[in-house]
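dumping the sequnces here before i forget
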Amino acid sequence: MPKHPADIDIRERIIEETIQLFATKGYDGTSLQLIADAIGIKKSSLLYHVSSKEELRDQVYKNLLSHWKNELPQLLSTASGEHDRFSSVINAFVSYFLENSNRSKVAIREMLDRPDEVRKAVKEHLGSWIKLITDYIVLGKKLGVVKPDIDPDSYIIQVIMMVIGTVALGSVISAMFDNKDSRNINPLIGELERIARHALLVNPTPKPQKTGGKSS
Amino acid sequence: MPKHPADIDIRERIIEETIQLFATKGYDGTSLQLIADAIGIKKSSLLYHVSSKEELRDQVYKNLLSHWKNELPQLLSTASGEHDRFSSVINAFVSYFLENSNRSKVAIREMLDRPDEVRKAVKEHLGSWIKLITDYIVLGKKLGVVKPDIDPDSYIIQVIMMVIGTVALGSVISAMFDNKDSRNINPLIGELERIARHALLVNPTPKPQKTGGKSS
DNA sequence: CCTACCGATCGGTAGG
DNA sequence: CCTACCGATCGGTAGG
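..and the predicted 3d for all of it:
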């Protein structure tokens, strides 16, 4: 028997509110009562849909992981030109998390709360497509456009670290510089891209107007 | 009246066990009962020393912040040569967090749980000495040893992001590459240093054997 | 989706 | 540092 539209709707609402609350208050800091209140139903009604808090958590993370698995491989192929392939991959990656900062927050929280479970899930679901990037970097190394002393695997991890760190914690940590209006993480994103580019490419700042440059 | 040695001892034990538990389970996931059990006393006895869970948290973070304020300025002056000044600052910074991964874990957890409070504390206590690094980078820029397109503030934040991220989450996120034995974050540290160097310096890999190099 | 309820645990207090 | 206890809230169930 297919689900009623209302059933799908309420399940989506539950997941949505739960992600929001898990991101800001964490799993242990979020009671079922709090989630029920955010939706506007009674706690016992919430438990009719999810059966337990643990199952709710599982569904939240399954939802998030499926986003990764569906969107990320596709955005990785959104790469355009030769030099811009790098920029577009980074930008797409950043955009994905920037779109909703809850994604990186819950990811970090989960890594801290349940490292073993996340390790397993990450290995199982994300290992294969990230291999593609590694191979691409290794290829660039052989072609001489990528710096020879790079460690591709570690490089990718460090870039991921900067991305999720910036989106989740950037507005807090950038408060160290009181002169700027904090909360605006745009400068951080720009510098992150610059760092990633300079650490990867032999010629990080190409000058197209130089003689012999490919004009097309 | 001065504190008894036993008083100091028990307070240190309380802080120590609490940091450990806050790091692995978070504030909301750590009950006073759990802390008391770890120390080996009753919960009410714990409450004789700390009066409330909130006060316990404040003391834990005050303890951690004082470590920062005392050790970091001193390790920043541990810089040695001209080119190695960079490496030694980075290394000292990494070592500080690597020494006890709980430090970066609780830092990240606190940033997620109470962003406003951390923003205030960070601005108040860490803003001044981090200014020193910024100035140093700006100077290097004028001297032409630092890349001209760098954003010093954002650069420092991104390096911090990589450091605390690597120490706190590195063993989890590096599980994406199943070929390597995870948990060993040494390659991550090495690559982090390389990234930071290449993104900062005009000449990231000096060749001392070249003519005219300072041999001493 | 609700009312009514459960035992367990929460942070915290009284009193010694 | 302990025993004994408190009201409030936790995740979850019964029954409709």
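DSSP finds ten helices and no strands in chain A.
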